[in-house]
Amino acid sequence: MHASSLENMHRCYERFICGDYLSRHDKISVLDVGGANVNGSYADIFSLEKFNYIAADIAASEGVDVVLSDPYKLPFADHSVDIIISGQAFEHVEYFWLLFEEMSRVLAQDGWLFLIAPSAGPIHQYPVDCYRFYPDAFYALARYAKLATVDVRLDERGPWRDLVGVFAHNNKEITPTSNQWRPLKPSEKNKYSAQRAPSNTQFNDESTEINQINGELNYLEVLAILHDRLTISNYLEIGVRNGHSLRLAKSKAIAIDPDPNIDVNDFNQLDLYQMPSDYFFSNQTDIDFEKAPIDFAFIDGMHLFEFVLRDFINIESRSANEATIVIDDIFPNHPIQASPQRASNVWTGDVWKIVVCLKRYRPDLSLTMIDSSPTGLLLITGLNKNNRVLTDHYNPIIREFNSLDLMDYESLILKRDESISPLDWQQQ
Asked: Which of 312, 336, 306 lies closest to 210 in space, CA to CA?
């Protein structure tokens, strides 16, 4: 199971299951067709107690609850399953249209069907690899099985570039699809979202070693210098919090944060988008970045590598090639500060991995690591909005960097050996 597939299935969960559907059902059956746990499964997405999650596959394997004797016959009564999901399976199904028709048969009249299949990628036999899918294929499948096509999206991230389809019975009362973000309620948070949620836990060990900070100049002073030096028409910031860095902007500013603690009336040229950055970049239609590309951006959002990587990809593709992108929190001062789950007041998460990633995959970029306080800054120039290396390798990168060990980069990250003094940089 690759990272973008989990992200896409969770988005289906947020958009179509959370809210009204989840509140109206006490017990919800979920059938995962082709649901063997191969490097992960969707079980953490449907982990609430009210879900009865069943994985079906053609052979016994980890996570499989039902072994199908016939791959085109599901052992369930007509219209008896509330939610049917399938991801990374249909390319391996020789007569996929027969299986889809069978899924339609067992889908509840008011149920949802979520299908994810690749539109690209290398051959991966399991035991066969027969197909890749384009949007028209999903529309044709829905017509064949007499289902309504609610939504079809093509994810450009490689190597699989997954096609995501949402289907329902034609007689289901379908609410028009909405991309309006809202935070998950506590009763809607699953294991998957809990692993990726920021922690607001406060610790009482401010003076201990794990909360140490380093750096010669505060990061806000470095940002202020950049705002003074650069020619900026369109500034973008991810992770607003209390607005300290946002107040440095002298140009039109775009701010993105799901829970900002600011008053927009305090700013003259601010467009605030109260949502996660992923939602902003997926759904924003009111900004023409071709006409007004980003000149300067500051990334200080979720302290997880995969979020920072997506933010960089999305910003670069909307930036002028002469733009500057700055990423905060690249230098944890103690290994505990780099934990993906917050365990200290001073916390960077595994943002440090973006330094290694860009060095490895984007040697064309100019990277400057600033020894700023409290946790360092990465300045990136030499952008190329048409470069697709990170997008095309997104899933392999996430898998590769999940196992990266901070101590293998002790000199680069913890000791800041390749960083430059902000005082020296200021004189340049």
From this structure: 336
Record the tokens describing residue 123, joined without a space: 């051959």
Exposed, middle or buried: residue 167 (CB in 10 Å: 0-12, 13-18, 19+)?
A: buried
The reply to whether 66 and 165 lie within a common domain is yes
At how many degrees (to 10) do helices 305-316 and 394-402 cross? 150
Give the CA diameter of the chain. 74
Tokens in use for 420?
């430059």
- CATH number reported for the structural domain that contains residue 58 in this entry: 3.40.50.150
Asked if the model's pLDDT at residue 224 lies above 90, the reply is: yes
Query: What b/e sequence results for 286-305 when a residue is b if at least 16 CB atoms lie within 10 Å of its CB, and e otherwise?
Result: ebebeeebbbbbbbbbbbbb
> What integer is the mean pLDDT of 221-249?
96
Residue-range definition of the domain harbouring residue 224: 209-427
Q: How far is CA 182 from the centre of its chain?
A: 16
**Residue 65 near residue 29, CB atoms below 8 Å:** no
**Percent above pLDDT 70 for the chain:** 97
Token look-up 């990277």 returns 367
Q: What is the DSSP string of 188-242?
A: G--HHHHHTSPP----S-TTSGGG----SEEHHHHHHHHHHHS--SEEEEE--TT
Phi-psi region of 17 (alpha: psi -120 to 50; beta: other; left: phi over 0): alpha
The token duo for 80 is: 């008896």
Which DSSP helix (H) or strand (E) runs through 368?
strand 366-370
Q: What would the DSSP string read from start to end of 288-329?
A: -TTTS-EEEEEE-S-SSHHHHHHHHHHHHTTEEEEEEEEEE-
Classified as helix, coil or strand, 356 is helix
Q: Which two tokens stand for residue 238?
A: 């991810």
What tens digit of pLDDT does each residue of 56-104 get? Answer: 999 999 999 999 999 999 999 999 999 999 999 999 999 999 999 999 9
Q: What does DSSP assign to residue 27?
A: S
- The answer on pLDDT for 256 being more than 70 is yes
pLDDT band at 1 (very low <50, low <70, confident <90, very high): confident
Domain boundary among 195, 224, 256: 195
